[in-house]
């Protein structure tokens, strides 16, 4: 299972790559903003995109919508340093498998969301 990590903070991308690689995920790439995330998905065709909600150009909700419209769209898991309740209906209406707060990120949490539904 290949994974693209999208976050505007280098330190979080490095942490997530190290953590998820050590837990069996193959990280195929990284992106630091929404536009480059969409381009990276088209180029790399990852199975999963770990997508930060708060990006500097377009937010993760818009990126998730754009990705959902692609042929062979990847599964999207949203993440943020904020709690899910901070996003309300935007989160429940997003074309994503679910949400993991950054502080709760683990291979097991990601696998559980991907296996659900």
> Percent of residues in beta strands?
15-25%
What class would the helix/strand composition place it in? alpha/beta
The CATH topology is Rossmann fold
CATH architecture: 3-Layer(aba) Sandwich
Helix percentage range? 40-55%
The CATH class is identified as Alpha Beta
Total count of strands: 5
Count of individual domains: 1
Number of helices: 5
Question: Roughly how many Å apart are the termini?
Answer: 17 Å
Order of helices and strands: EHEHEHEHEH
How would a crystallographer describe the biggest sheet? 5 strands, parallel
User: CATH homologous superfamily?
Assistant: Response regulator
Rg calc: 13 Å
How does this model look, in words?
It contains five helices and five strands. By secondary structure, it is of the alpha/beta class. The chain has one domain (2-115): Response regulator (Rossmann fold). Strand 3 (48-52), helix 3 and strand 4 form a beta-alpha-beta unit.
Short summary:
With 117 residues, the chain is α/β, with parallel strands linked by helices.
Any key phrases for this structure?
22% strand; single chain; five-stranded parallel beta sheet; 40% helix; 5 strands; Rossmann fold; alpha/beta; 117 residues
Produce the secondary structure layout:
Layout: E1 2-6, H1 10-22, E2 26-31, H2 34-44, E3 48-52, H3 60-68, E4 75-80, H4 88-92, E5 98-101, H5 107-115
Parallel strand pairs: 1-2, 1-3, 3-4, 4-5
């Amino acid at each position: 299972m290949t994974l693209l990590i999208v976050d505007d903070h280098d330190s979080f991308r490095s942490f997530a790559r190290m953590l998820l690689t050590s837990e069996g995920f193959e990280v195929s790439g990284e992106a630091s903003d929404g536009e480059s995330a969409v381009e990276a998905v088209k180029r790399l065709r990852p199975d999963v995109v770990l997508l930060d909600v708060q990006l500097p150009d377009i937010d993760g909700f818009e990126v998730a919508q754009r990705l959902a419209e692609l042929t062979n769209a990847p599964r999207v898991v949203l993440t943020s340093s904020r709690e899910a309740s901070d996003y309300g209906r935007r989160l429940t209406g997003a074309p994503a498998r679910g949400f993991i707060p950054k502080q709760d990120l683990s291979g097991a949490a990601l696998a559980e969301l991907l296996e659900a539904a």
